[in-house]
Design a protein that fits this description.
elongated; single chain; 371 residues; 7 strands
C-alpha cells in the first residue's frame, strides 16, 4: 500500500519523468499497528524537489494508535486479561517481534478506550428522540452502586441513556441521574412510563424530577423477590404462585383484588411480607391499568431488559481483581453497557407502542393544571 502511494506521487520506478515534483529517498525503520500490536517495517521515504519530506497517508493510517486502543477494548471486554493478551493477537508472522503488548501498555490503551466510552455516553444528546419508556435500575460493582437508565424509543429501540455512581442507590444519586437526563434533552411533556425496581429512593427521585407526567411501573420481579425475602422457605412457593396468578390477570381490578386479598392473608403470620406487598402495590399493575396488550405488558412489567445488559457488565469485568476507585467502576460499567447495546434488538410488542403513547397522553390530560 505504501509503495503504491509512492508510485502515485513520484511515478513508476526506473522511468524518467521530467514533470515529477518529488522523488524516492530510500527507506527507514518504522512501526505500524497490525493484528493488535506494533510491528517493525522498512517504510519508503519521499522528498520534494526542494528537499521537504512527503508524509505518506498510508503509513500514518497504520500508525494510528486508535487501532491498538480499539483492539485492547474489544479483547478485554470479551474476557482476555492483560496477562494473557498476547493469546488473542492475530497472526502476522513468527519472525516479526511484537511491541505494545505488555500488561502496562494494554492497560493504558484500555483505560483510554473506556474513558472515551464513558465520556461519549454521558454526553449523548437525548432531545432528538421520543422516549416512551425509561427503565432505571442499579448494579453493584465492588463497593459501589451504579444506577443506569435505559430508554425505549417510540419505534421500540433500546438505548443506554446514562449512569451515575454512588455508595448506595439513594435519592441523591437517583435525582442526579434523572436531572442529567433532563438537562441533555429527555422530554416527558407527552408522558413517559418509568419502570423501576422497588427502591423508594428511585420512586422519590422520579416524583421530584419528572413530576406527574411520569407514570410509574414497579418491577414485578423485584417486588416478588422483596416479598419472598420476608417469608420462610415453606411459604415461598405458594406465595410466589399467588403473586404470579394475580399479575397474569388481564383485568386491573381483579388483579388488584387478588393482591389485596393475599396481603390480608399474610397479615397475621407474616406481617413483614404483607407490608412489603402493600408498598407500591398498585404501581406493580400500571401496565394493566393502562390497558396495554399482552406482549407489551410482558416486556414492561419488569426491568429485565436492563438486567440483561448488566450481565454483559459482569462478564466483561470478571477478570478485574483490584478496583481502585469509582471512576474505574464507571469506566468498566459504561464500556460493558455500550458493548451490550450493540446487540440490542427492538422490544417484543414494538408494533403496539402507539397504544402506549395514547395511554400516556390520556394520563397527562388527567393531570390537574396546577401540576
Amino acid at each position: 500500500m505504501m509503495e503504491a502511494e509512492v508510485t502515485a506521487i513520484v511515478g513508476p520506478k526506473g522511468k524518467h519523468n521530467p514533470n515529477r515534483k518529488a522523488f524516492r529517498h530510500g527507506a527507514e525503520e518504522g512501526r505500524v499497528v497490525l493484528g493488535g500490536r506494533k510491528v517493525p517495517i522498512q517504510r519508503p521515504r519521499v522528498r520534494t524537489k526542494d528537499g521537504q519530506e512527503v508524509r505518506l497517508s498510508s503509513y500514518e493510517a497504520f500508525q494510528d494508535e486508535q487501532l491498538l486502543t480499539q483492539a485492547a477494548l474489544e479483547r478485554m471486554l470479551h474476557g482476555l486479561s492483560t496477562r494473557r493478551y498476547h493469546h488473542g493477537l492475530e497472526p502476522v508472522g513468527d519472525d516479526l517481534p511484537a511491541v505494545a503488548t505488555s500488561k502496562s501498555s494494554v492497560s493504558r490503551h484500555f483505560v483510554a478506550a473506556t474513558r472515551k466510552a464513558l465520556a461519549e455516553l454521558l454526553a449523548r444528546p437525548l432531545g432528538d428522540q421520543r422516549y416512551l419508556v425509561l427503565m432505571l435500575d442499579g448494579i453493584e460493582v465492588a463497593d459501589h452502586t451504579v444506577v443506569v437508565a435505559l430508554g425505549i424509543t417510540d419505534d421500540g429501540q433500546k438505548q443506554i441513556l446514562g449512569l451515575w455512581e454512588g455508595a448506595t442507590e439513594n435519592a441523591t444519586v437517583c435525582r442526579a441521574l434523572l436531572t442529567d437526563l433532563v438537562e441533555r434533552g429527555l422530554r416527558v411533556d407527552g408522558g413517559i412510563l418509568v419502570v423501576i425496581d422497588g427502591a423508594k429512593a428511585l420512586r422519590a427521585a422520579v416524583r421530584d424530577v419528572l413530576g406527574a407526567r411520569a407514570t410509574v411501573q414497579r418491577c414485578q420481579v423485584h417486588k416478588k423477590r422483596n416479598v419472598l425475602d420476608h417469608l420462610p422457605d415453606e411459604a415461598r412457593a405458594w406465595v410466589s404462585r399467588k403473586l404470579e396468578q394475580a399479575w397474569r390477570e388481564t383485568d386491573y381490578e381483579k388483579a388488584r383484588t387478588a393482591l389485596t386479598s393475599l396481603a390480608k392473608t399474610l397479615d397475621d403470620k407474616y406481617p413483614g411480607a404483607a407490608a412489603s406487598l402493600r408498598e407500591g402495590l398498585e404501581e406493580t399493575l400500571t401496565v394493566l391499568r393502562l390497558e396495554l396488550p399482552e406482549a407489551l405488558r410482558k416486556t414492561l412489567r419488569s426491568t429485565n431488559p436492563i438486567e440483561s445488559a448488566f450481565e454483559k457488565v459482569r462478564m466483561a469485568s470478571r477478570n478485574v481483581k483490584r478496583w481502585r476507585n469509582g471512576q474505574q467502576v464507571l469506566r468498566w460499567t459504561a464500556a460493558g453497557l455500550l458493548e451490550a447495546e450493540k446487540g440490542f434488538r427492538r422490544i417484543k410488542g414494538y408494533r403496539q407502542l402507539p397504544m402506549l403513547s395514547e395511554a400516556l397522553s390520556r394520563a397527562c390530560c388527567e393531570i390537574p393544571v396546577s401540576q
